[in-house]
Amino acid sequence: MSLTKEELQELVRNKLGNRPLLVVSNREPYIHVFAGSQVRCQVPASGLTVALDPVMRACGGIWIAHGSGNADREVVDEKNRVAVPPQEPSYTLRRIWLSKEEEEGYYLGFSNEALWPLCHIAYTPPTFDEAHWNMYQRVNRKFAEAVLDETEDNEAFVFIQDYHLALLSRMIKEKNPRLVTAQFWHIPWPNPEAFRICPWGREILHGLLGNDLLGFHIRYHCDNFLDTVRLLLEARVDRERSQVTYGGKTTLVRPYPISVDFHRIAQEAARPEVEKEMEQIQQRWDTGDKFVGIGIDRLDYTKGIPHRLKALDKFLTKYPEYLGRIVFFQLGEPSRVHIKRYKELNAEIEDLVEEINWKYESDEWKPVILLREHLPPSTLMAFNRLADFCIVSSLHDGMNLVAKEFVSSRIDEDGVLILSHFTGAARELNEAVLINPYATDEFAEAIKTAIEMPPEQRQARMRKLRQVVAQNNIYRWAGDIISQLADLKS
Ligand code: F6P
To answer: Cα of 117 to ligand 1 centre, how many Å?
Structure first.
């Protein structure tokens, strides 16, 4: 059953009463940056923050996160707090400051060079470094201190996000046992054989089992987690109830497929500013009479961007009748750029784009436009609305909210989503054209299918996709987790 923003607000009032809600994540939902001498507020490229911001707008509360913007310190009070969103403040963002050394060890090092590749099947091996692990523990403690400072000895619900903070629940509960915690793991959980190579795997599991509730996007990841616990810890694993009892404490393990704020995205997509931007894009890139394809990603090796460029190349070779008639926009913000693998990926994408353009371009036409910069939500929405097809070709992805944002913004009930089988989203969005990003020939055929799909079929499929996202929206996701957590403790 779908849930509205107002229904979530009521559910939170009923279930949580006057116990406060705290969200804790590494990435912050709003980043302040200098633009010359001005301070500008940006929304980061993060599925996690896109999903949780509407929940916090609806429920209020405190969100604790790393202050990563170069102007973040300019706008906070003496407790490092700032009211957000800037246009209509409805919750409090409390920022945590990390030194370069902490960021390197905890964020780039252990989180993104060890846990990220460990959990994604993308054939990039993880690197385990003891100094990074030590820093990961230190920074988790830093987050714990901020939570304890906010909650003192009181009861509160703490909703922890992702793989950066695997040790947090246990750290805070040791100091304040009245806290109730849920943690959502936004990325896949690997099978036990893959996970056991982590030298601190037991410590990670021990940390996560400090939670009352642990959520993953899909049942398959829950089962992988349960099997991993069974392999590595002395714990009672109950597959049927989907729970683990460890050291006398029980943690429920449940699937909650995350989503987006369907109605808000649809409303914003209809704004005149977005329509104006659509016209500007058409004029600037001369796309009026051409098929437009888009890919919008944080530039990450799990997203299969080189794979999609290779499929596009294959498509243009096989079907030369489309030369001059299609433009593909690859949009995306560079990410984690201090990690070698991400630098290599950026270079690879640049080379591929150059190569494809060189091979096929004419004086008036280039098949691929690469825009590697931070683009505001209204521009991304304009691209979503303009596109004849959107490609999400992740090699492995917990959910992938770009796919759900594309569907939500298609108020014209048109456009085709080409979606990798290896995303959590593919389990719900089965009216998309599903692809294996590694199978280049099939992928090229899928692009042809998308472009040539008869309008009635395109529209019927998009209507079904929109029903799914409208139904399983972000308020329902949050409502399910909060209800489960509150019921556990009532
Ligand atoms: O959803 C996975 C995730 O790593 C989030 O935790 C994060 O906010 C997002 O992807 C973007 O990555 P990053 O915060 O490292 O830029």
So the answer is: 13
As a whole number of angstroms, the distance between CA 473 and CA 183 comes to 19
Chain segment 24-47, per-residue pLDDT in tens: 999 999 999 999 999 999 999 999
Please name each of the domains of the chain with its CATH number. Answer: 5-259+474-489 (3.40.50.2000), 264-471 (3.40.50.2000)
Q: Is the CB of 46 under 6 A from ligand 1?
A: yes
Question: Shortest CA distance to 49 belongs to which of 212, 326, 260?
Answer: 260
Enumerate residues 6+ apart whose C-beta is below 8 A from 439. Answer: none
String of DSSP letters for 299-335: E-GGG-HHHHHHHHHHHHHH-GGGTTSEEEEEEEEE-
C-beta 277 within 6 A of ligand 1: no
Cβ burial, residue 453 (10 Å; 0-12/13-18/19+): middle
Contacts of 445 (CB under 8 A, 6+ apart): none
Q: pLDDT tens digit string along 426-462?
A: 999 999 999 999 999 999 999 999 999 999 999 999 9
pLDDT in tens, 361-381: 999 999 999 999 999 999 999
**Residue 173 · residue 210 · CB < 8 Å:** yes
Angstrom distance (rounded) from CA 384 to CA 273: 14
Give how far Cα 166 sits from Cα of 25, 285, 479, Å: 11, 45, 23
User: Does any ligand 1 atom lie closer than 6 A to the CB of residue 47?
Assistant: yes
Tell me which H or E stretch contains 129. Answer: none
Q: In whole angstroms, what separates CA 11 from the centre of its chain?
A: 25
Residue to substitute in 25, 42, 46 for testing ligand 1 pocket (most ligand atoms within 8 angstroms of CB): 46
Closest atom, ligand 1, to C-alpha of 107: 15
Ligand 1 atom with minimal separation from the 116 CA = 4
CA of 104 to the centre of ligand 1 (A): 15
Predicted confidence (pLDDT) per residue in 464-473, tens digit: 999 999 999 9
pLDDT at 230: 98
What per-residue confidence (pLDDT) applies to 423?
98
In the chain, the percentage of residues whose pLDDT exceeds 90 is: 97
Q: Is 466 in the pocket of ligand 1 (CB under 6 A)?
A: no
pLDDT 10s digits, 129-151: 999 999 999 999 999 999 999 99
| Residue carrying the six token digits 């992805």 | 397
Does residue 490 carry a pLDDT above 70? no
CB 115 within 8 A of CB 163: yes
Q: Is 162 in the pocket of ligand 1 (CB under 6 A)?
A: yes
